Amino acid sequence: MYVLGVESATPVAGVAVLHRDKILAERLINNRKTHSGHLLPMIRSVIEEAGIGPADIKGIAVSSGPGSFTGLRIGMSTAKTLAQVWGVPVVGVSTLDALAYPLAGLANLVCPVLNARKNEVYTSVYEGSGGIINNLTGPLALKPEDLAALLSRWGDRTVTFLGDGVFEYRDRLTDLLGERASFAPGMMFLPRGAAVAGMGWIKLESGEGLDPLSLLPDYVRLSEAEIKWQQRQQTMSGCPG
To answer: Are 139 and 172 in a shared domain?
Structure first.
């Protein structure tokens, strides 16, 4: 089965074509420009470079969050539109799952952290041993101090961090966790279309493919616009009639 993977939940735009568990072509751009102008040309390129055509694609996997609200909407709308046009199922893959997936088999706890702004990170905690990545808790939006408190649940086990949140919070996590904190190589900090495609292939093979209209993002927390709307509604409900 040929699977197209699309990653756009962070400042990174990544796409890949995978056949079974073999990566055939992959592209990644980390220039912090909007994804709307990159994704379709990148998708066309990886399909051509894989030596196939759009009709060979049998499923699409797309990062479903958490991450940038704008990036998620661009990626999901692109994936869902292509799935409708090509008549193939689509699956959502957690951005955090996709980051942790390449570290399956690591004995440490695995903890991807994405910069969620507002002094918070999007995060989940995974068990990496046994060759399978198991989600122990999350996804969550937490301050680094609250994440450190959460990780105390697993005693003195070493925690391997990765993701773009490390750039911002590495020193603080080290201060909070001491020798328990370890960090994956910098090249692992960026989510990749290949990981999304790989996890998508597993889901599609298990029959978890969805009609494109059924797929929804997982924002984890409300957007700024939604927060302001709720505040306005609360203010209005408190006003005398």
So the answer is: yes
Distance (Å, whole) CA 92 – CA 64: 5
- Are both 139 and 206 inside the same structural domain? no
- Structure tokens given for 1: 């089965």
What are the C-alpha distances in Å from 41 to residues 72, 87, 202? 18, 20, 26
Element (H, E) at 165: helix 165-177
Torsion of the alpha carbons at 233, 234, 240 and 241, rounded to the nearest 10: 30
173 three-state secondary structure: helix
- CA dihedral 5→55→73→62, nearest 10 degrees, is -20
Half-sphere CA count of 123, side-chain side, radius 13 A: 29
pLDDT tens, residue by residue, 3-60: 999 999 998 999 999 998 899 999 999 987 778 888 999 999 999 999 999 999 999 9
- The parent domain of residue 44 ranges over 2-94+190-224
Q: For residue 160, give every residue at least 6 positions away whose Cβ sits within 8 Å of its Cβ, in sequence order, or none.
A: 103, 106, 108, 109, 110, 111, 128, 182, 183, 184
Tokens 């046009």 map to which residue? 85
What pTM was computed for the model? Answer: 0.89
CATH number of the domain residue 100 falls in? 3.30.420.40
**3-class DSSP state for residue 49?**
helix
